[in-house]
Amino acid sequence: MTSTVVRASGLTKRYGSFAAVDHVDFALEEHRIYGLLGRNGAGKTTLMQLLTGQLFPNEGELEVFGRTPAEHADVLRRLCFIAESQRYPEDFTPKHVFTSAPWFFENWDAEFAERLIADFRLPVKRRIKKLSRGQLSAVGVIVGLASRAPLTFFDEPYLGLDAVARHIFYDRLLEDYAEHPRTIVLSTHLIDEVANLLEHVILIDQGRILLDRDAEEVRGQATTIAGARSVVEEFVQGRPIIGREGLGGLASVTIDGRLEREERIRAAELGLELAPVSLQQLIVHLTGADLAGATEKEVAA
Amino acid sequence: MDESRPIFLQIAEQIENDIIDGVLAEGSQIPSTNEFAAYYRINPATALKGVTRLVDDGIVVKRRGIGMFVTEGARDRLVERRRADFSAAYLRPLIIEAEKLGITIDDLAALIRAERIAS
């Protein structure tokens, strides 16, 4: 069985009267890939900073590898946090970063790092402040992968990385995770790109957790029904509606919940079109302005 | 991968298709879950779930330390199951669409025969 790596209850971080993380409860299990998703300012980075001991919570309980992370060296050395815009000392080159990495990460694999450097075509002797935005992101991605930390966070790791480089990242992540299982938290806006890599999804909005479910449960959990307005409205009656669009006499309504085969056949007989809702579309619906206050319970009801 | 359905089901179906088409012969070894994960760029736990489903159905058998193999008689059982689903999955939508367009059952039968000859 898997063991729990992170356990949070009632975890809260306030900046003045603003709660960036607002009484959240969740757990992260060992050897899984998590997606921490949400809009800008939802609280994703603050949450990861709490988990990595960079911030102190105002309220609530937090255990990482069984202890509070802040100021516990034995916890911190098992963590790796790749920030969106990591800063490095003046005059550092990528070579300096990779040479000093083994001091902080006991599982550091220098050979793997070399392979990644070649994959990303990273100029290791150029000063970091002269690197392009994408090359700077590649430095972070390489550290995150080659460190093989038992709990690794990637916070929007690929600003400026092109599509080819992002796919190298996904491929190497999956390969290495298969050989060296560990807990990985990916926080990103590019939901469609990473959706299939995730085992579990945590959606955060306005400092609260909106959704905390297995990715496979989320997939296909919502359906969009389109057709003549009156027919659509009758079909969706009594179902939890999470999105609604219309054009003249046509309506397109997204419901939360799977349709059984019989219902699909009935929809076809009524002349309705059914369309799948991707994880990204679902999240747009769930975190859209009109439903910003909905909780997981309301959505699932 | 199709967004509307669980990926593990799609992985299981893909392997079933390969067994029905003879790409994976009875008694032969199927790729490992990590190979499936890398090929389809999916989480290995998802790939494992798909393969486990086939193990539970007796289509694939796990030999500890070696890998997973297609069982004897797997193809016949899959074909039988697909035949049972054929009506609901293919015929009913076809008939509904035909009725919508005013195509009679006899016309439909003629169309199927004509299509068969053309292909």
Give a brief outline of the structure:
The longest helix of chain A is centred in the middle third of the chain and has 17 residues.
Question: What can you see in these coordinates?
Answer:
The complex is a heterodimer of chains A (301) and B (119). With 301 residues, chain A is α/β, with parallel strands linked by helices. Helix content of chain A is 35%, strand content 29%. Chain A is built from 12 helices and 13 strands. Chain A has helices spanning 44-51, 73-76, 94-104, 110-120, 133-146, 163-179, 191-194, 215-218, 229-236, 261-269, 279-287, 296-300, and strands at residues 4-15, 18-29, 33-37, 59-64, 79-82, 151-155, 183-187, 200-205, 208-214, 222-228, 241-247, 250-256, 273-276. Chain A has a 6-stranded mixed β-sheet with strand order 5-6-7-3-8-9, with helices on both faces. A 4-stranded antiparallel β-sheet of chain A has the order 11-12-10-13, sandwiched between helices. In chain A, helix 4 (110-120) packs antiparallel against helix 5 (133-146). Chain A is globular. With 119 residues, chain B is mostly helical. Chain B folds into 2 domains: 7-72, Winged helix-like DNA-binding domain superfamily/Winged helix DNA-binding domain (Arc Repressor Mutant, subunit A, Orthogonal Bundle); 75-118. Chain B is 64% helix and 8% strand. In chain B, strands 1-3-2 form a 3-stranded antiparallel β-sheet. In chain B, strand 2 (60-63) and strand 3 form a beta hairpin. Chain B is elongated, with a radius of gyration of 18 Å. The relative contact order of chain B is 0.12. Chains A and B meet through helix 6 and helix 10 of A and helix 2, helix 3 and helix 4 of B.
